[in-house]
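Write out the 3D structure for:
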Amino acid sequence: CRTDVQCYRVFKNSERGTASTLVDYAWDDMVTFYLGCSFGLEHVLVSRGIPLRHREQGTNVPMFKTGVSVYPSGVFRGKLVVSMRPMPESHLAASVAASRPLSHA
């Protein structure tokens, strides 16, 4: 049973639901996705004093749909989406150091 996050989104027959555990779901035909969120990184960067342009401008983080296709499974398919945090080059080393503890995510 997977219990590594607080809540799971479960799609069954294209219907979305939620579950606090996956113990009641069969694993023989299950496909899982880990959808990460880069906003957790932002908290770390801001706490280190690293300026983020989109926050200064009061906008959402820039996101871009790439030309890279994700591996399709059933109704799940599409292009990989990435985000970007433009920042002054002088903050690059500090941002790499700040994000290093998150490398397991």
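DSSP finds three helices and four strands in the chain.
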